[in-house]
Write a structure and sequence with these properties.
Oligomer: single chain
Radius of gyration: 59 Å
Number of strands: 71
Number of helices: 13
Structural class: alpha/beta
Largest sheet: 13 strands, mixed
């Protein structure tokens, strides 16, 4: 290319670096300086032995640039090729993060670990000479010996000197690939601007990456041979061994059992989670039901660690033997297989065992190929049991035409049946004693009929056989007769073959739905009520016999109707009539019992007392007249007789005239007061006017039947006491021979004794209350006693007693308050739920339950005083509210000009009353703080959920305790416990 004509004036300086790899020109413009063109610059370069690396064109462009520049310019004109340094081996590391489980030990392990020992593997060829014999050229000559030289390559392990500084730390399990090694690269020479070679730097030591203990190199991969903490240096890696817990799960071939392999590690490590092992066993195909519970697995692991003994193929299932059974239904129509795999170390299930069990039964028509496939699927599957697998199926024998039954009795008309049904509904206990009532209740009875013993109830035709069948053994089964009617012969009905007979005289309960019959016979008879009047009309007699079953009942109303029908209206002996009725109702027939007597003509000295109490009832009635009286109360006054005579009357009320000559002389002025019969419940006192006053000698109920007086201090209630009796108040003791039903209310001036049980009722006694059969209150029952309460158990009941409350068994969910002691004396005596306040404490076997039912107990204080405090606080609050309202009313009247005097006086009275009540409330609170010796004694167990309180201090039971006593320590001011001795 021709040279350019460009010229630049100034100075040019050539600079070459020390390595000879770069040359640069620095031009400084100067109008008076030397001229520079391409040839002159090229000559300068060549004079400095720079003959390549630039072009003529490049120099021309450079000169033009110089010519235009007003300031100095430095430009690189030639560059050489720099040498390349060698690259050592580099490692790409896997994730070696230290797990959280081992992180707490890392610092200690690295600190106390040994210095790294790093080795370098050097290959060395070893010369080996072997003497061999070669055959001679001729057979008769000896063989020729020859030395063969071979070389074997051997690895020589030499300890390497490395920088021991650890750059990275990690953790890896034995057999883990922890890194991939990138190969090293050698250096490369460069070229200077003079065309001369520039040598590569000398390779540094440590080109190869080295392995320490616990690491194995396989080509370009690094693998751990030991589990532990990894240390990575500048060009090395090793492992500080650290034993970890290692486990694996293997399932048996039939998936019935899981086997555990476990190697214990460092004792400082936590025990592996049993839940993870259990999950791994399930994932391996073993059903969770076949595997030990987590607590059992944890125990195995702990024992292995404690004893430093590995576990090898330990079964995690309870040992159970394999079981095979062929079940055949009693009629032989179905054969099924039951098979169970062996578990744990028990005998395994084998196909040959199943085959033997099936062959032993000699079944016919088996689908052997399908059976074998299904059984193998079961053996190789996860299920532990094969249940009801069908092996063979027979054919049932056919059944002939069904027999149709027809009733053979005359049913009662609907109106009569309805009357019987109503009586049964009114007295459900009549049928409840029959077990069939649950399946054949009254509502299901369609018709009634009277039957006699031996009478046929249903008519049925002969049976007809059906077609033949075959069982699983190939045996032919005879045809079956047609179905009999579905007959349910309950009480007193006998069904045999073609006959359905009555076994007693009575009332048939009948129900039919298509060809199904329900039959029951119950005794039945109307009550007998017969009254007779003697010919002279002065006496009446009664015959009574109680009904049987749902017959027309024996009632007082029907008895009165019978008396009325015979016109027996006067002189009735209520006591005799009542006794006759009671005897008959108790099942003892009454024959010709005198129950009424007329009054013959007589003088007037028959006593007619003047009663000082209000009587209820009529003395001449069956029940007589009565009134509640208290001991020492005047009840009647007997005055002197006024003389005269009276006509009589008969039982029909007809007057019987006094016959002439039978009159008696009138009494004298000195006649004594008339007398009247009475028992020791009354005593006589003479009054100032000469009359006699009868005074109650005991509290109770005064009875007057027209011919005598008595005070009954104890009332006996025969049978159950129910809501129908209404609220009953009796001034003395009440004894109930039965139970107390829902809604009943009884208030007694003495004690109450209940032989049976109690439901949601109210019993209140001035004395004690005893309930022999226990109380099921349903949250609504209340029992109050001025003295004590005794019962078998109580559920959902409010129990209030001034003195002791005693029961044998459970007190469940009750609200108890007593100023005595609550005692549950039996082995099953347990206090559960609700609340109990017992001044003198509690003695029981158990308190609370495993489920932690909340049970609140208070003891050691007078809880009757506590009730008075509650009452005073309510009344004090009412007084304060009333005073506030008075203030508002006074202000309103003052603003309107009204009179406020009366309101002001009322306010002053209320303030004084408030002061008195506040003082009384303060006194009561001080009294309530008084402590009474008491303990809560538990002979068995007290459970969490029980909260104790005394004097405002609380103690909650946090863990189960046995045979313990709780008491209030007055010195320390809190509740303490001690062992029960």
């Amino acid at each position: 290319m021709p040279a350019s004509g460009s010229i630049a004036k100034g100075s040019v300086r050539l600079d070459i670096d020390e390595a000879g790899l770069e040359a640069s020109l620095t031009f400084t413009p100067d109008p008076l300086g030397a001229e520079w063109n391409v040839e002159k610059i090229q000559r300068m370069l060549m004079d400095n032995r720079i003959s390549q690396g630039y072009t003529q064109r490049g120099l021309d462009d450079l000169v033009q640039k110089y010519a235009r520049s007003k300031t100095p310019i430095t430009s690189v004109i030639v560059k050489g090729v720099p040498p390349e340094e060698p690259v050592p081996e580099r490692v790409t590391w896997a994730d070696l993060t230290i797990p959280d489980t081992y992180a707490s030990f890392a610092d200690e392990i690295f600190f106390s670990g040994p210095n790294p020992e790093i080795f370098e593997i050097r290959l060395e060829k070893i010369k080996k000479e072997t003497k061999i014999k070669k055959p001679a050229a001729l057979p008769f000559l000896p063989p020729k010996e020859e030395i063969v030289v071979t070389y074997e390559t051997s690895e020589v392990k030499e300890k390497a000197m490395v920088n021991p500084e650890t750059l990275e730390k990690g953790f890896a399990v034995a057999g883990t690939r922890i890194g991939v090694v990138s190969p090293s690269k050698p250096g490369k020479n460069g070229k200077s601007i003079f065309g001369m070679p520039v040598p590569s730097p000398t390779p540094p030591s440590g080109v190869n990456f080295l392995c320490g203990s616990g690491i194995k190199r396989d080509k370009n991969e690094l693998w751990t041979e030991t589990t532990g903490f990894t240390r990575i240096g500048e060009n090395w890696v090793d492992v500080i061994p650290f034993a970890v817990h290692r486990w694996s799960i293997r399932a048996s071939e039939d998936k019935s059992t899981a086997y555990l392999d476990f190697i214990p590690g460092d004792l400082r490590l936590p025990i592996p989670q049993a839940a993870e092992i259990l999950a791994a066993a399930v994932e391996a195909g073993v059903p969770a039901s076949n595997i030990f519970e987590e607590s059992q697995i944890a125990a195995l692991l702990k024992k292995s660690i404690d004893e430093d003994e590995p576990l090898a193929s330990v079964p995690l299932s309870a040992s159970g033997e394999a079981l095979v059974r062929v079940d055949i239904t009693p009629e032989g129509l179905s054969a099924t297989l039951y098979a169970k795999k062996g578990t744990g170390s028990g005998k395994r299930l084998q196909l040959k065992d199943i085959s033997a069990a099936i062959n032993e039964k000699k079944l016919k028509n088996l689908k052997l190929d399908q059976v074998k496939k299904d059984i193998l699927d079961f053996i190789n599957g996860p299920n532990l049991e094969l249940k009801d697998y069908p092996l063979a199926q027979g054919m049932a024998a056919g059944r002939g035409k069904d027999r149709i039954a027809q009733p053979a009795v005359t049913f009662l008309p609907e109106d009569v049946s309805e009357e019987i049904r109503k009586r049964c509904e009114a007295r459900p206990e009549l049928l409840l004693k029959y077990p069939s009532t649950l399946r054949f209740p009254l509502a299901k009875v369609q018709k009634f009929a009277f039957v006699q013993k031996g009478q046929n109830i249903l008519q049925m035709p002969p049976a007809q056989p059906g077609t033949a069948g075959v069982d699983v053994f190939g045996t032919v089964l005879a045809g079956l007769p047609g179905n009999d009617p579905e007959i349910q012969p309950f009480e007193n009905v006998r069904f045999s073959g073609n006959s359905v007979e009555a076994q007693v005289d009575g009332l048939l309960h009948y129900s039919q739905e298509e060809n199904s019959f329900f039959l029951r016979i119950v005794p039945h008879k109307d009550a007998v009520i017969s009254a007779r009047v003697r010919s002279d009309g002065m006496d009446a007699y009664l015959t009574l016999e109680r009904e049987v079953g749902a017959g027309k009942p024996l009632t007082a109303d029907r008895v009165h109707e019978a008396l009325k029908a015979k016109n027996i209206v006067k002189g009735i002996d209520g006591e005799a009539l009542g006794k006759a009725l009671r005897e008959a109702l108790e099942g003892n027939p009454v024959r010709e019992r005198e129950i009424a007597r007329g009054k013959p003509p007589q003088d007037s000295r028959t006593p007619k007392p003047e009663f000082l109490v209000k009587l209820t009832g009529i003395p001449d009635s069956v029940a007589g007249a009565s009134a509640s009286v208290k001991q020492g109360q005047p009840v009647a006054k007997l005055s002197k007789d006024s003389g005269g005579s009276q006509d009589g009357w008969d039982v029909t009320g007809a007057v019987v005239k006094v016959k002439e000559g039978e009159l008696e002389a009138p009494p004298s002025e000195t006649a004594e007061p008339m007398a009247i019969k009475h028992d020791d419940g009354l005593r006589e006192e003479k009054a100032a006017d000469g009359s006699i006053v009868l005074i109650a000698a005991r509290s109770g109920e005064l009875h007057y039947s027209g011919n005598g007086l008595s005070v009954v201090s104890r009332r006996l209630v025969e049978g159950d006491f129910t809501r129908a009796a209404g609220p009953v108040r009796f001034p003395g003791e009440v004894a109930i021979s039965g139970s107390v039903g829902n809604g009943a209310q009884l208030f007694a001036g003495g004690s109450i004794i209940v032989a049976g049980a109690m439901e949601a009722a109210l019993l209140s006694a001035e004395g004690s209350v005893t309930v022999g059969g226990g109380i099921r209150g349903g949250g609504k029952a209340i029992v109050r006693a001025k003295t004590s309460i005794h019962t078998l158990f109580a559920e959902g009941t409010v129990l209030l007693s001034v003195d002791t409350i005693e029961m044998k068994n459970q007190c469940f969910n009750c609200k108890v308050k007593t100023n005595g002691r609550l005692s549950l004396s039996g082995e099953r005596g347990t206090l559960v739920g609700g609340s109990c306040k017992a001044k003198k404490g509690i003695d029981t076997m158990n308190i609370g339950t495993e489920s932690g039912v909340k049970t609140e107990l208070s003891f050691g204080q007078d809880y009757l005083v506590g009730d008075q405090i509650d009452l005073e606080e309510r009344e004090t609050s009412d007084l304060k509210n009333r005073i506030v309202k008075l203030d508002i009313e006074i202000k309103r009247l003052a603003n309107s000009g009204g009179k406020i005097d009366a309101l002001g006086q009322e306010k002053v009275s209320l303030i004084k009353l408030l002061e008195k009540r506040s003082h009384r409330l303060l006194t009561l609170r001080e009294k309530f703080e008084e402590h009474f010796p008491s303990e809560i004694r538990i002979r068995g167990t007290v459970y969490p959920g029980v909260v104790l309180e005394s004097h405002g201090r609380y103690f909650e039971v946090k863990q189960k305790k046995t045979r313990v006593v709780f008491f209030f320590d007055q010195e320390r001011g809190h509740i303490q416990e001690k062992p029960l001795t």
